[in-house]
Design a protein that fits this description.
This protein is α+β, with helices and mostly antiparallel strands and about 130 residues long. The protein is built from 1 helix and 8 strands, in the order αββββββββ. Strands 1, 2, 3, 4, 5, 6, 7 and 8 form an 8-stranded mixed sheet that branches.
């Protein structure tokens, strides 16, 4: 017997699985919220939140991220995966969760881009550049 599910049936099935997974995690004491990225901060850019290709810009979080954690950065220009942009030197947060790292503006098309930094605990901060 060949049986296909329609979109409503698939949505119901996925919802039921999420509820069951949430209940299973609750029994183990693990929060489902810890499994998805959390946005903990905006970003501050210095000297400005705009620049030309090759300009050196410093970025820092407007709040605190995970202490003693490595930090990566991605630029999004309307695409879901973004472009990894390296820092001039490897970036990590201090014992309080703050960082102050520099990068060179990448060669992307003109306009505003969403910049997201992510620490090793998957906490994120983002802002437009």
């Amino acid at each position: 017997m060949n049986r296909r599910l329609n979109m409503n049936q698939c949505a119901l099935l996925v919802s039921m699985l999420l509820v069951l997974c949430g209940a299973a995690f609750a029994q183990t004491g693990v929060s489902v919220d810890t499994l998805s990225p959390s946005s903990v901060a905006g970003l501050n850019f210095s000297p400005t939140s705009s620049g030309r290709y090759g300009d050196t810009i410093t970025v820092s979080p407007s709040g605190l991220m995970t202490p003693n954690s490595s930090v990566t950065m991605r630029w999004f220009s309307g695409d879901p995966t973004g472009i990894a942009v390296p820092f001039i030197v490897p970036c990590s947060t201090d014992s309080q969760g703050f960082f102050n790292c520099s990068f060179k503006v990448p060669a992307l098309f003109f306009g505003s881009h969403n910049v997201t930094v992510t620490d090793s605990n998957n906490e994120q901060g983002s802002a437009a550049f």
